[in-house]
């Protein structure tokens, strides 16, 4: 059964093109007006796995609509197209209830990539091959054991940027649990990967510090670049 996506967009917007693109990727996508009333009427009568909503203005009606959506469909993923850049802390403070924020203007391909990376039918986990391909293209060796740890670190930090400030207490234990190892070993393998990457000439965008790069600096730089490539927010924006 195909994953169903409702797209609330202006009738002269990119909704129809996005729906067509998502269909080629295996989704059933339906367009409707981005008026809060139209979106709610559909969701009150039909079941969808995800909602893409083009938020042209941050009106009270939009906030109320998103609150109602979270009540109607608590498990549904909401992809909010926003023309205002917001850090994750600002998003939380705003009270906007959405799963993923996509900075506009973005192309149909970029938006569909974000949806693929955050599919509503895979419990919110990012598609690891996308991250692995990105890291390989940057020059990281997939044969080094720390490579898988970095993939997981990027995945987790894209979803929760605050983990970069809680490396020892939260991020390393998460990696360790997923890889059936220890947090200490995860830290060591990531440090080894960073040292090899520096020797291999891997470039870290916006990093002007000394080498070898620290684990936190490496994960932050790669996560920021990966998030930027797909139009995702990160704490470094």
Describe the structure.
The chain is built from ten helices and five strands. It is α/β, with parallel strands linked by helices and 237 residues long. It has two domains: 3-117, 3-Layer(aba) Sandwich (Rossmann fold); 128-229, Orthogonal Bundle (Arc Repressor Mutant, subunit A), CATH 1.10.10. Helix 1 (15-24) crosses helix 5 (108-117), helix 2 packs parallel to helix 3 (60-72) and helix 6 (128-138) packs across helix 7. The radius of gyration is 19 Å and the shape is elongated.
Looking at this protein, list some descriptive labels.
single chain, 237 residues, alpha/beta, Rossmann fold, Arc Repressor Mutant, subunit A, five-stranded parallel beta sheet, 10 helices
Strand content: 5-15%
Percentage of helical residues?
40-55%
Taken together, the total number of domains comes to 2
Radius of gyration: 19 Å
CATH first level of the largest domain: which class? Alpha Beta
The best one-word shape is elongated
Order of H and E elements: EHEHEHEHEHHHHHH
Low-confidence stretches: 233-237
CATH architecture of the largest domain: 3-Layer(aba) Sandwich
| Number of E-type strands | 5
Q: Describe the main β-sheet briefly.
A: 5 strands, parallel
List the strand order in the largest sheet. 2-1-3-4-5
Structural class: alpha/beta
Number of helical elements = 10
- The averaged pLDDT comes out at 81
- For CATH, the homologous superfamily of the largest domain is named as Response regulator
What CATH calls the topology of the largest domain is Rossmann fold
Straight-line N-to-C gap:
37 Å
């Amino acid at each position: 059964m195909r994953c169903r996506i409702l797209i609330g967009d202006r009738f002269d917007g990119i909704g129809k093109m996005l729906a067509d693109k998502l269909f080629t990727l295996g989704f059933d996508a339906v367009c409707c007006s981005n008026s809060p009333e139209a979106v709610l009427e559909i969701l009150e009568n039909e079941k969808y796995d995800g909602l893409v909503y083009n938020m042209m203005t941050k009106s009270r009606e939009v906030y109320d609509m998103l609150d109602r959506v979270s009540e109607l469909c608590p498990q549904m993923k909401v992809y909010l197209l926003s023309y205002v850049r917001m850090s994750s802390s600002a998003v939380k403070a705003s009270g906007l209830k959405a799963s993923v924020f996509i900075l506009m203007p973005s192309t149909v391909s970029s938006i569909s990539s974000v949806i693929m990376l955050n599919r509503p039918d895979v419990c919110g986990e990012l598609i690891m091959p996308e991250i692995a391909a990105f890291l390989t293209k940057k020059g990281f060796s997939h044969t080094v054991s720390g490579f898988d740890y970095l993939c997981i670190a990027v995945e987790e930090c894209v979803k929760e940027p605050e983990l970069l400030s809680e490396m020892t207490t939260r991020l390393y234990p998460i990696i360790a649990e997923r890889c059936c190892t220890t947090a200490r070993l995860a830290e060591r393998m990531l440090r080894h990967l960073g040292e090899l990457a520096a020797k291999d000439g891997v470039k870290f965008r916006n990093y002007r510090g000394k080498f070898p790069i620290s684990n936190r600096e490496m994960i932050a730089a790669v996560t920021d670049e990966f998030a930027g490539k797909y139009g995702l927010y990160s704490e470094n924006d």
